[in-house]
Design brief:
By secondary structure, the protein is α+β, with helices and mostly antiparallel strands. The chain folds into 2 domains: 251 residues, Zn peptidases (Aminopeptidase, 3-Layer(aba) Sandwich); 106 residues, Alpha-Beta Plaits. The protein has 9 helices and 19 strands. The protein has a 6-stranded mixed sheet with strand order 1-2-6-3-7-17, with helices on both faces. The protein has a 4-stranded antiparallel sheet with strand order 4-5-19-18. A 4-stranded antiparallel sheet has the order 12-13-9-14. It is elongated. It starts with a helix and ends in a 5-residue tail after the last helix. The relative contact order is 0.20.
Length: 371
Amino acid sequence: MARYLLEQLVKIPSVTGQEARLAAFCEDYLQSCGFHTHRQYVTATRFNIVAEKGSGKWSLLLYSHLDTVAPSPGWVHSPYQMVQDGDYLYGLGISDMKAGMAVMLKAATQVQPEGYRLRIALGIDEEGFSRGAHRLLQSPWCDDVAGILVPELSIDSNTETLGLGRRGHFTYEITLFGRKVHAAVQHLGLNAIELASQMVLRLKHFPTHNNALWQQEDLLVRALHAHEPDLSVPDSCTLVLSYFAHPDRTQEEIQHELRQYIEGFTRLYDIGFGLRPTPSPRGYWTQPAHPFVRWIQQTAKDTLGQTLPETFGVSVADENVLATLPHSPPVLSLAPVGGNSHQPKGWVSQSSLERTLALYKQILARAGQIV
């Protein structure tokens, strides 16, 4: 059962930036089960864990991120204590993604790969800027990977799903300019905060793309910055905008559309990309007809008695980074049923945890058939 391992993982705090203790635990666990492991340093104190066992000309990669968001107010018990209520297991990061990590580790240590190399990667900073996933791609460690499975939820669902892709995430900073005058004669000026407030409301009607396959794009105004230290009308205000984009869309293309939309309101503005230490994650999509997808679906049918609903993830994750590997291996998400990610009372279904473990064990036992 994966339940006991999951309880151990939940007990170890691993808020973004503080992943080292959990990484060391997973390193010891994998070593005790016959894996060769290596610490892949991202900073002087933060590191990924990469591990391997088996032999062959190609590799299958299982990937999980180590970090969780910080516990928010509202937990009625310790977020680091796993609590059970019927089929529900609760704990911080349990759905995002310690339950998936437990499934991955348990399956990998119970199956001896035949005809291929089984690789495990545990990355830091997914809830930040995916520094761990980017460090992984800068190494040759993924060069011969033929397929990637990530036990992270792509959507909330009452059954296990197979995620074939995810939306991308682009950040923009829109600065609106006013006219500074003394506050006593504010009617002679132009208040940039008022302009920005009007723009926030206007952006609710921005014509985001929509199609039957990937559904609706989305945007979120997540910050507004302005400060006038003097007794004057503020003459600039900056909005920070997150845009969740379809896989066929670029950051520059959406910037052009935003620019045209803003110019219908004002020409006193500037728009640029939000600064980040890693590249902005583009969306990705794996075709349902891909042989790797069909093989996973056949294994699911043989193991669970049915194929899995195929879904498109609405949120960005480290999978977006892994999908940029130069040789483009398929990247699929397959996780236990859970919910309330980034919220108090994050949960996972224990019965789904065990079903997903059974499926992963079959996938790893049969993976030599893929190539």
